[in-house]
Amino acid sequence: MAMQAGVALRSPTEARPARVLEVIGELLRELRGGEAPPPALDDDLELTLGIDSLARMELMLRLEQAFDVRLPEVAVQSAETPRDLVQAVASAAPRGAGLPAPKPTVATFAPPADVVDIPRRARTLVEVLAWHAERAPSRRHVLLLHDTQAPQPLDHAGLLRRAQQVAAALRREDLRPGETVAVMLPTSLAYLACFFGILIAGGVPVPIYPPFRPSQIEDHLRRQALILANAQAALLISDAHAMPAAHILHAGAPGLRAVLTVERLHATDDGWEGVARDAQDTALIQYTSGSTGQPKGVALTHANLLANIRAAGQALRAQPHDTFVSWLPLYHDMGLIGAWLGSLYHGVPLVLMPPQAFLARPSRWLRAISEHRATISAAPNFAYEIVAAKVPDDELQGLDLSTWRVAANGSEPVHAATIDLFCRRFARFGFDPHAALPVYGLAECGLGLTFPPLERGARIDVIDREALRDERRARPVGAGDARAMQVVSCGSPLPGHELRVVDERGAELPDRDEGRIQFRGPSATAGYVRNADANRALFDGEWLDTGDVGYVADGEVYLTSRAKDLIKRGGHNIHPYDLEAAAGALPGVRRGCVAVLGATDAQSGSERVVVVAETALVDAADRHALRDHIAELSLQVLGVPADEIVLAPPHTVLKTSSGKIRRAACRALYEEGRLVAPARAPAWQMARLWVDALHRRIGRPARRIGAALFAIRAWSLFGVGAILGVAATLLPVESSRKHLARAIARAGLRACGLPLRVEADAALQQGPWIFVSNHASYLDWLVLTAVLPPEASFVAKRELAARLPLRWLLERVGVRFVERDEVQASVDDARRLVAAAKGGVSLVFFPEGTLTRAPGLRAFRMGAFVAAAQTASAVVPVSLKGTRSVLRDGSWWPRREPVVVHLHRSLHAEGSGWSDAVALRDRARAAIAESCAEPVLAT
What we know:
Blueprint (H helix, E strand, L loop, with lengths): L2 E2 L2 E2 L3 H21 L20 H15 L1 E2 L2 H6 L3 H9 L2 E2 H4 L26 H11 L4 E5 L7 E4 H17 L7 E4 L5 H12 L3 E4 L9 H15 L1 E6 L4 H10 L5 E4 H4 L16 E6 L9 E5 H15 L7 E3 L6 H14 L3 E3 L2 H6 L2 H9 L4 E4 L1 H9 L16 E4 L6 H11 L9 E3 L1 E2 L6 E4 L8 E5 H7 L12 E5 L3 E2 L4 E5 L12 E6 L11 H7 E2 L2 E11 L2 E7 L4 E3 L2 E3 L2 H8 L9 E7 L6 E8 L5 H19 L5 E5 L14 H9 L10 H47 L5 H19 L3 E5 L8 E5 L6 H8 L5 E5 L6 H9 L3 E3 L4 H16 L4 E3 L17 H9 L2 E8 L1 H4 L12 E5 L10 H18 L8
Parallel strand pairs: 5-14, 7-8, 7-9, 9-10, 13-14, 13-15, 15-16, 16-17, 31-32, 33-39, 34-37, 34-38, 35-36, 35-37
Antiparallel strand pairs: 1-2, 3-4, 5-6, 11-12, 18-19, 19-22, 20-21, 23-24, 24-26, 25-26, 26-27, 28-29, 30-31, 38-39
Helix pairs in contact: 1-2, 1-4, 6-7, 7-8, 9-10, 9-23, 10-23, 12-13, 16-17, 20-21, 23-24, 24-25, 27-28, 28-30
């Protein structure tokens, strides 16, 4: 055996583990800014070494260069230890053999001769799919790319057929119209079929994302459980890989009836035409990335989604000759609405990739654009940065990006440096810089809100950072100025939409003044699901608050911050992003893992600037030096010193599913002293979740028994009250009958144990009054009888007078009947009500006219407001909150839930005309909307 310097020469097989550990060690030293303990073959890549998905991608590229191989992507992504990576290297093909050969630049999809129009008159997404399936059934809609499998095509007819099968299976599961179904599936053709199957069955899809990172499984599932509870999901659809997590969610979600697998939904070939739905029905509940607290589920109707898709298509000049390539996840609005549903509506073929394909090898995105001659693709800013800075040249051989006409960049802050780097690197591959399209949108607007002009390229505004901080003024400066700050334009509002910038008082600001961005338009949501506090913050009259801060210049919007991320200190607004980017570039700091927070000082109540930077540095001197560097950057970038710098271990900074920093959640943990805590093993997290779920599962039968006892007591008391009420109608004087009815209602509610709270903005003055209340439950009349003055008379639909005994009883307590359908009778009844009001009778109206099971404040009828305007009577808006939960329409099972009755200040019409009555109606509806805790539906 050959010997050198007394050491045996090792074979390549023996040297491979050492070289793998050497490459990992080099990466760790870069991540940690200096020395790092040498890794061992059986260290956990994520928990022990702190290598997350993006660092794993970098490690894969370095291993490929070190061993001149092309690693199997699945093996690298699933590797748990360096030993697994050694095995992946051993089985890898030579680098040249694994690189894809350049393909001819021909269209993957057939020319769209069979598509000459788009479904302009469709009212729902289901009608859109049916339109395409009828006119172009064999036209390819989606081509799903896999790492190891052949591409899977799907045409319009195939999607409709699969969706009808899913709808039939959901019908067998007793899914009722309007019920929500959570979809926790990876990107697949099954996802598409399940989404439309839910819609065809009359349900509402609620996309949630499958668990991805084992080290954060507990945080992930707790957030998904909150979503299921808030959405009141009846069913959950998952696949075999996510079933352990799905079963935990099922155990902890009280209203979830079943967890269904894709295989179970496709177990039969039976199809079903489905349930008819309307444009104003909810088509999707899209949960925002959210940072902390109660989930915010954005309710979007078919009309909202189609309005946004049509406006975006008009701005992009989308047509069937285009091709869209997307790796964006389908549980995110940019992938679901922008890429998939937008492509479906406009007949644009979609090349679909799982997001893991991009994370495993980012060049696959560009390769797909090149090979399929794509004209449109979109991604967040970080994706453009990765492919511009990280992908090696040899993976770009033969790339042709000359057909790419729309390179949309959105979903997170767009950086001018990223756009410049991407355009410069890929110009030699045919990419046109004019295709760069920074866009802005939000879930509350469906998806898109502002787009810049096509074929112009990115517009960069260079402003004075200090003027923005001190004066909230975007003052232009030269690019070489020391105070220069680059802000990217996101364009103008989409057709039919409007945008404005306002100050803290809601006054609209002039150009270049920074403030809160608000919008309105046909895509705007009616509100968040079961989240009254968030709805109050969302709406400013007919305008919706985006939660973003920025300014307008020359008709285009420039975003500077999220309102909740702004740090207010010494009268200045401090934007955290520049410092986060600068600190993230320091050696020893994990890039993209820095959060700058405004934390409240417990003693002074003022905000403190806190910098949380992830690092794996362990040497005290290195950590001290890093703190000094961050402190210097804080002064340079923010103009103020950081009050505290927290050097945290990897995976401390919380992020959303799309990679955005959850600053509010980090702030909450910091203020609670729980930000820097040792990460528990996934098995321990799963065990905690199972214990919590088991506790809820055991407690559920007890709650059901308690609910049954409450229902029995409620109906028993109602029976007793009904008997006493009939007896009360025998009294000779109407006022006595009304007083006794009120006493019976109060006693019944009190004996039932129903939590009832009455709130009043002001004491009722001398009547008569006209009370107008939202109508959510059959319980409403009983609650109002107990709360309102006894002399008030209810106004009811004439259908209740069809039965003589019921009519006699209601008339004995002063109920007035009105016709709703026959025009002349309705006019005559309205005149009688006006006469009664003139005679001093107080009336109680439900101007919604009827009630439904689904929540939402509906359009108001005019009768009450015409009567008030013509008699100069005071209108008292009444908000009922909680009665729908106690006794929902279609159910005879009352539940013990808190009920709040809010009596608002009285309103008066400014005149006696029709326009005065309309204005009075709008004011009353707005007042009721403030406290009823339900979304305001379109009129």
